[in-house]
Amino acid sequence: MSGINGKVIALTGASSGIGEETAVHLAARGARVVLGARRKERLDAVVERITSQGGEAVGLVVDVTRREDLARLTGEAVERFGRLDVLVSNAGTMAISPFDELRQDDWDAMVATHVTGLLNGIGAALPVFRRQRSGHFVNVASTAAYLVKSPQGVYAATKTAVKILSEGLRQESGPDLRVTLVSPGFTDTEGVGKGAGPEIAAELVRQRDEIAMPPSAVASAIAYAIEQPAHVDVGEIVVRSTAQA
Ligand SMILES: NC(=O)c1ccc[n+]([C@@H]2O[C@H](COP(=O)([O-])OP(=O)(O)OC[C@H]3O[C@@H](n4cnc5c(N)ncnc54)[C@H](OP(=O)(O)O)[C@@H]3O)[C@@H](O)[C@H]2O)c1
Fold it and tell me: Which domains, and CATH codes, for the chain?
């Protein structure tokens, strides 16, 4: 199946920011979307936004660090819509801090969300994709996967892991599956600086407000990869504001 219309697309981190914008964008183009995130109210609002515009969407409370939650997300797609064409692994946390602050819970959360969370998605979707003999993984990394800037060490390391896992998966995926890495630069979302200490958060928000691109830029990049003909695999997209060094 080529294009976006009619595809069944599951997205994690769909309750705000890039995930929300991507869900809305894909649903407006005829995708049936299955949305996962932890905040039920925000998720319900995204589902309402899509369905009120005539789109098809369902939301599930999902914590990507929990293996069984990803199995529920992909299972819901198959049960409700009969298949799963794309899994967009987008859930993320940008609780950035210098090492000396020893915010080890935040380090753990970034590893659990970006690395374990991605692996949980692969574990849940790969058997479905193999059975169908088609499927597409779209993994959201960051420009931090290409260039580490202090104090983003842990964040950049986990996003570099997303990049490496995507390439490893691509090499093993064979002729039927597609794997795309999408790496955004500064994007205007509520997640920038969230969970970071007050000084770092203020600096990140200042930079965001100065140079960020809208989340729709990332949604378009993801849609571009998905809409290519089935035998065309867009490997990597880096999308950033022209103002970002
Ligand atoms: N904004 C940027 O400048 C930028 C740049 C490069 C890359 N990115 C990446 O883009 C992705 C989306 O971020 P964003 O900017 O759109 O920020 P955001 O608005 O904060 O979105 C993050 C999403 O991830 C979800 N999430 C976080 N932890 C989760 C978990 N354990 N299980 C399930 N969902 C979880 C959040 O929902 P709940 O809290 O409801 O669970 C939310 O929907 C992230 O991977 C981020 O690293 C962002």
Answer: 8-232 (3.40.50.720)
